[in-house]
Amino acid sequence: MIKLDAKIPEGPLATKWTDYRSKVKLVSPNNKRKLEIIVVGTGLAGASAAATFGELGYQVKTFCFQDSPRRAHSIAAQGGINAAKNYQNDGDNVYRLFYDTIKGGDYRSREANVYRLAEVSVNIIDQSVAQGVPFAREYGGLLDNRSFGGVQVKRTFYARGQTGQQLLLGAYQAMERQVARGNVKEFTRHEMLDIVLIDGKARGIIARNLITGEIERHAAHAVVLATGGYGNVFYLSTNAMGSNATAIWKAHKRGAAFANPCFTQIHPTCIPQMGEYQSKLTLMSESLRNDGRVWVPKRAEDVKKKPADIAEEDRDYYLERMYPAFGNLVPRDVAARAAKKVCDEGRGVGPTGRAVYLDFKDAIQRLGHHVIEERYGNLFEMYEKITGDNPYETPMMIYPAVHYTMGGLWVDYELMTSIPGLYATGECNFSDHGANRLGASALMQGLADGYFVIPMTIGNYLSNDIRTPLPETSSAEFEQTEKEVKERLEKLMSINGKRSVDHFHRELGKIMWEYCGMSRTAEGLQKARGMVQELRKEFWKDLRVPGKMDELNSELEKAGRVADFMELAELMIIDAYNRNESCGGHFREEYKTPDGEALRDDENYAYVAAWEYAGMDKDPILHKEELNFEVVTPSTRSYK
Amino acid sequence: MSWLKGFFNSSIGRKFIMALTGLFLFLFLTEHMLANLLLLLPDNGILYNQYSHFMVNFPLIRIVEFLLFGSLIFHIIYALVLTYRNRQARPIQYAVRKPGENSSWVSRNMGFLGVILFIFLAIHLTGFFAKARITHDLGMVTINGVEMHDVYSLVKAKFEIWWFDLIYIIGFMALGAHLWHGFYSSFRTLGLRHPQYLPLFKGIGIFIAVIIPLGFAIVPIYFLINSLS
Amino acid sequence: MKITLKVWRQESPDEKGRFDTFRLDNIDSHMSFLEMFDVLNQQLIEEGKRPVEFDHDCREGICGMCSMYINGRPHGFQSGTTTCQLHMRHFRDGDTIVVEPWRARPFPVIKDLVVDRSPFDRIIAAGGYVSVNTGSPQDANSILVKKSDSDAAFDAASCIGCGACVAACKNASAMLFVSAKIEHLSRLPQGRVERVRRAVNMVRQMDMEGFGNCTNTGACEVECPKGIKISNIHKMNAEFFKAVWVSSEEVEA
Q1: Cα gap C83→C87, rounded to integer Å
Q2: CATH number reported for the structural domain that contains residue A509 in this entry
Q3: Is the pTM of this model over 0.80?
C-alpha cells in the first residue's frame, strides 16, 4: 500500500526552497564519485540532469531510444520559455509567474512546486545564455521577450521558432562535455523495459539494445526517469513517433503512483488529419488566430464545396458567433471544443470532415499581403509544404490535436516517486501544470527539474547510500526482472496473429480521441473502458510482429510500447470517470455552466488523484493528495 | 614541433597546403603567361631570348624555381593523399547519383583536370624545359655579343605543327577549368568568407580562369596562323 | 498514385546488401514520404515479410533522425526539406524512386536504411560546448551580444545533425556539421573564450572518425535542410589556422 507524503517543507511559500536547500543533506565530492545514477531519456529534463550530475561528480549512465541524445522531442518545441526576469519592467516577478501558472493549471497543482518553478526560472535563462543558447536579442544587445497565451507581461524568451531545439542543444552539449570527462556514459538506441527494485528501492533498469536486441542489466544507486509525456496513447498527436510511456508505465506497475492521468492538453491549431495513413499531427502556432477567422459552412451539404464557392452568408464564423467578446481569441480548450462541436454536427471540412477553416482573406485585405507575410510567412510556408495549399489564396484547415500530458508519475517535493530512489522529471511527472499547462512553460519545467531541482534533492537520498556498493547485476532481483522482460517480449513475438501494431494503435487512438479526448461523459468513458479492454484482448490474440528478437526490429519496439499504452489508456479512462468536474484539459459534458463553460468542483475534487497499480485487470487503487491553497484562492477562470 | 606535424596531417592543414601551393603556381602562371607575350613581338625573338637567358642565369630565379617545383610536387602529392582519403571515406558508392543538381562539374573534377594538366605538363616540359635546361638540345644565337640559347626558334618550330598546338589548347582549357574552381576555392580554404568580398574573389577567379588560358593560347595560334599565311 | 520503390536492404552491418523492388498502387498524393514507407511496411507485414527499417522520429523536420538518399539526393530533391517533410505530391504517378542509406565510412549501415551517426556525438564531445557548470552564472543580460552576432550564431546553431552534408559531399566530409558548431559558439562572447581549443579538438576528432576533406563543391549547403552555409567551413579553416599558428595557447593539432 502506497503512502503519499509530498514532503513539502514547512514555512512560508517564498522561502520553502531556500530553507530546503539550507537543510538538505549533502554528499561529499569523494563520495559522489562512488555513486551511480541512471537517467532515462535525454530531452531537456534528462540531459540537463545528466549534465549537472556529471558536473557534481556523480557517475551517470543515460539512455535514449534515438540514435543520438540530441533528438529527444524537446527539440520540437517552438514558442519559447518563460522566466520571471522582468527585463521588460512590466511588473513581472516570481509571484506573478507562480500565480499565472497555478491559475492556468485551473488550481490542480501543488503551490510549493509551482513556486519553486517560478523561482528557478530566472536561473535557467542565465544558465542557458552562459552555455551559448542564441536567444533572440534587441539591437542594443539585450535579450528580447515576447508575450504568450493569456498573461499580461512579456516574459517569454525565444530563439525564433526553435527555442526547444536551442535549449536542448545547450543541455546536450553540456552533457557531451561530461561524456568527454568520463562522468557520463551514453547508451543510445537503448530502451528501458523495466525497473529493478532491491529491498523496495530502485536500483537499476533492464534495457534492450535496439541494434542487437540484447537485454542488458544496468545497476545504479538511483534512477531518474525523464521520458516525456504519453500523448501517443491517442495515436495521432504532436508527439514524436517514438514518444512512449513504457518507462513510466513499468515504474507504475512496480509501485510508482500515477497522478492525474486524464489531464491531457489539446492544442486547437494543428494541421488536420488528411487520411487514414496519417502518422502524426503538426502544430501551427496559436498566434495565427490573431488575424485568422475561423469558420465552417452553415449547411452540412456545403462541406465538400471549395471554400471560395461558399458565399459569405453561408459561412458560420462560429467562434465570433458563440463568443462575441473574445471571438477567435478564446482560450485553447474552448476553441478546441467548439471545433469538435461543429464537426460533430457534420459541418467539418477537408477529406475526413474533421477540420475547420482558418481564413486570412479579410486580414490580407485589411493589412495587405506583405504585413501578413511578415507576421506569419514561415508558418504559411510550412503549411504549404505539408498540405500543398497556399494559405494566401485559400483558407488554412486546422483541427485540435493532442499536444501535452499534464498527468504523469506522482512525485513529492523532491521529485521522488512513491518508489524510493526512483525520480521523475519533466513532462513524465505530474507536478507543476495542474489540469492545464500554459504556453512556454514545458521547457521551463524540464530545465528547472533537471538543472536545479533534482541535482539538489537527489543528494538527500543518496547521502544515505554512501556506504552502499553498486548492486550486483547478478542478483536475484535483476535475474527475475530480466526474466519477466524477456517473457513479455517472447510473448509479443509468439502471438503470430494477423494484424500489425499500427492497426491496434490506430484503433486505440480512435477510442481515446472519441471518448477520452476533448470532451468526456461518464457514459462514454464506461463504454470506452470496455472497448479498450476488448481491444487489449484482441491485441494479445491477433498481433503480428515480424522479424526476430535479437536484431533491430522496430515493429517489436512499437509492439511493446503499444501494449503499455493499452494499459495506460484504461487508467486514463478510469481517472477521467472518477473526476466528476470539468477543469483545464479535462472537460466532462455533465459539469458545465449553463452557457457551456467548464465547472470546477473545488469542494470534492481539489486533490491529486494518484493511482496505485493493483494488478492486471484489477481496478487501480485511488490515493488522494489534497491540495491546500495557502496563498492563492481558487477562483473561476474567466475570459468573458 | 609536434603542432606543425599535427597541422600538416590534419584535414584542414592539408587543404591549406593545396591552397597555398596552388596559389603559388598561379602566380608563376601569371608571370609565365605575361612573359610569353614577348613572343608576339615582331623582333624575331630577340627580347624573348634575352628574357630566357636572364631567367636561367639570375641566381634568385633559380631559387624560386626550386620553390616552384616544390610547390608542384607538394600540390600533386597532397592531391593524391587527399583524393585517396576522400575515396576511403565512402567505400560504397550510391547507386543513383545526381551530383549535377547540387554542385558544378568543375568543382567535382579537379582531380581529373589535374591529371590532364599533369600529362600536358609532361609533354610541355620534355618539349621545352628539358631541351633548354637538361639536354641543351637547341640552337644558339648571339645577341648584343652574348651567346645564348635560341629558345624563340624552338617555340616557333614547335607551334607551327597543328596537332602540337591542339594538345596545348586542350591543356589550356583544362587549366582554365582548374583555375575556375581552384582560385576561388583556395581563398575560401584560407578562410576568406566576408560576404562583401567573397563575390569579388569569385569574379576575379572567373576572370583569371578566362584570361590566363587565353593569354597562353594566343601564342601557338599566332605561330600557327603565321606559318599558314 | 502508383509508385515503384527500389529500396536498399541489408540485414546487418557486415552483410552485403541489395536492392528490393516494391510496387505501391495506392499512394495518396498528400502522404509524406515516410508515410508512404509506413504503407509499404504495413503491406509487407501483411504479406508476412520483414518491413523496411528506417530512422525517423519527430516527423516535423527538426529532430534530424530521418535520413534517406532519394533518387540521388539526400532528403530528396526539394530544397530546405527533410525526408519527413517531403510529400508525395511532388512525385509523378508511375515514378520509380530509388532509396539508399547515407553512404560514408564513419556512418556504417546498421540495417536497411538505418546508419550509425554516433561520430557526430563524439565530435561534439570533443569540444562543441561552453565549459560552464550549472550554478549561478552572471545575469543573462550582463554580457551584451550584438544582434548580428546572435542572429549569425543562431543560423549556425539551427543545424539538426542529420548528416545530409556528409551524405551529399562527394568526399563524405563532415566539415559543414563541425564548422556550424564552431561558428555558433565562437560567434558569442560566452563561447569565444574556448575557441582555440574547440577548433583544434573538434577538427582532430572529425579527422579521427575518418570523414573526407572539403573540396568546396558546395553540395552540402545546397542539400542542407536547414540552410547552413558553407561559409561556416571557411570560418572554421580560419579558426583552426589561427589556433595552430597564431594563438599562444598550448594546443596540439
Answers
A1: 8
A2: 1.20.58.100
A3: yes
